[in-house]
Amino acid sequence: MDLSLLSSLFSLLSFFSTPRPPPRIPKNQTPVAPRPSLRPARPSTTAVDATSLQFIKGVVEPSVPDVSLTRSRDGSSGVATFVFTSPSIFDASSDVGDITGLYLVDDEGTLSTVDVSAKFVNGKPDRIEAKYFMRSEFEWNRFLRFMERYAEDNELGFAKKQQDE
Hints:
The chain is of the alpha+beta class. The protein has a domain at 52-152: Elongation Factor Tu (Ef-tu), domain 3. It has helices at 3-17, 89-96, 137-153; strands at 52-56, 59-60, 66-71, 78-85, 102-106, 109-113, 116-121, 124-134. A hairpin with a 2-residue loop joins strand 7 (116-121) and strand 8 (124-134). The longest helix is centred in the last third of the chain and has 17 residues, at 137-153.
């Protein structure tokens, strides 16, 4: 190998491997912010602190609902019914906004439904019922993963309905 070629190769390698100080900005100029990227941001790899149920995006509902599940015999569809008795959103909804649905948020993403209804007793809000429909085995499994995380975070258990003999 030619000695001059080898010498230039080493100088090139040292150029890229030597740390460089940041560029100097003349005193009469202000630094310019970097231009925003047009590429979509990568999804965050950090996990969400906890799973949550939200009636308004970003506002966590602290009350824990009763959840009942039904599934078709062939396993192709199912329904989860959430019943919140005296949810805190009744007290805060005028301050933070309108109920736009039920959002089930965890580290995999967000499941949502707009099938949400409020029940009133003597003209006062009593409970909120929401139904989440699962139309495939994939949606069913995704919902179960969410519920496992939600149950673990809120120290809940699962009990199958007793069959009459």
